[in-house]
Structures are given as structure tokens and as C-alpha cells.
Design goal:
CATH architecture: Up-down Bundle
Number of domains: 1
Helix content: over 70%
CATH class: Mainly Alpha
Shape: elongated
Number of helices: 5
Order of helices and strands: HHHHEEH
Strand order of the largest sheet: 1-2
Largest sheet: 2 strands, antiparallel
CATH superfamily: Phosphate transport system protein phou homolog 2, domain 2
Radius of gyration: 20 Å
Structural class: mainly alpha
Number of strands: 2
Distance between the termini: 28 Å
């Protein structure tokens, strides 16, 4: 298209945005693959008992869907809605991170302790298990938050393509 039709102005912005959006969607796919691997590795138990990862991650999936729909429909209002909705996801991720850190603090973890630990978050076979589970939770939350950030990038690039507005670009 670039060589044969020589797009200008709006058409060129759409082509450029599409190139960048593909990269963001590829990153979302990489992060989704990571999350799937974490789920398979965790088999029957979640890294921290009583942590609702699906509730934390649900907005991320919606953001990606809404951002790609906004691009398909060239809907600038939807782009702003995606950016606004990212704040909810960020809040859930902060809460998940705080919960993981609070677990470490509550249990006064000593990584060399090999005794079973009972805490508000559940029973762990050792302090090492607690640290491993908290670490896994922090990685999961980070990946979910990054998915939301990529969805906002898609919305920002879409807004730039359709309105030449850099309002959402970081």
C-alpha cells in the first residue's frame, strides 16, 4: 500500500498506527502466553490463596477488546473510554500488589525458616513457599497491568490516526 498507493495525511496516519498497533497486540499475546503458563504451573492452587486473579484481570481483556473495536470502528469516544477504564485496572493491580506485600509483612517472613506458616492468606509449607507465591503474584499482576497499558496504547494510536490528536499518547 505504501509503495503502490502512496497514502498521505489521514491514510498515512492509519497505516502508521496499524503498524504500531500490531506490535502492541503482539506484546499482549506474549503476556497472555505468560499468564497461561503461570496458570498451568500453578495447577490446582493459586500463588496466594483467596486472591481472585480473574477479577483482577477481567478489565484487561475488556480493554483490549474495546481498543481493537475502537480501531475497527474509528471511534474516538471509545478511545477515551479505554483510557479512562485503565484506571480501574490499575487500582485492582495496586490492590493485588498490596495484598502480596501485606502477606509478607503479616507473616514476618524469614527465608531460612522451614516450618509451616499459617496466616490470613492461607497455610504455606515454609517461608520459601510464601516468598515464591508472593513473587509469582507480583509477576501476574504486573503482566495484567501491562496488558491494560498496551490496550491504552492501541486506543491512543487509534485516536491519533483518526483525529490527528496526540492527547492519549504518552
Amino acid at each position: 500500500m505504501l509503495a503502490l498507493q502512496q497514502p498521505a495525511a489521514g491514510d498515512l496516519r492509519i497505516v502508521g498506527a496499524a503498524f504500531k498497533i500490531v506490535t502492541d497486540l503482539e506484546r499482549v499475546g506474549d503476556l497472555a502466553t505468560n499468564l497461561a503458563e503461570y496458570a498451568l504451573d500453578g495447577s490446582e492452587s493459586s500463588p496466594l490463596p483467596n486472591t481472585d486473579y480473574e477479577r483482577i484481570a477481567a478489565p484487561a481483556l475488556e480493554l483490549v477488546e474495546h481498543a481493537t473495536d475502537a480501531f475497527s470502528a474509528a471511534d474516538s469516544a471509545a478511545c477515551f473510554a479505554v483510557a479512562d477504564r485503565d484506571d480501574e485496572l490499575d487500582s485492582r493491580c495496586v490492590a493485588g500488589t498490596e495484598r502480596a506485600v501485606r502477606t509478607c509483612i503479616e507473616l514476618q517472613i524469614d527465608a531460612t525458616d522451614t516450618q509451616a506458616i499459617q496466616g490470613e492468606s492461607g497455610t504455606f509449607s515454609s517461608a520459601y513457599d510464601v516468598l515464591a507465591d508472593v513473587s509469582q503474584t507480583l509477576v501476574i499482576v504486573r503482566d495484567v497491568e501491562r496488558i491494560g497499558d498496551h490496550a491504552v496504547n492501541v486506543a491512543a494510536r487509534t485516536l491519533y490516526a483518526i483525529e490527528s490528536s496526540d492527547e492519549l499518547l504518552f
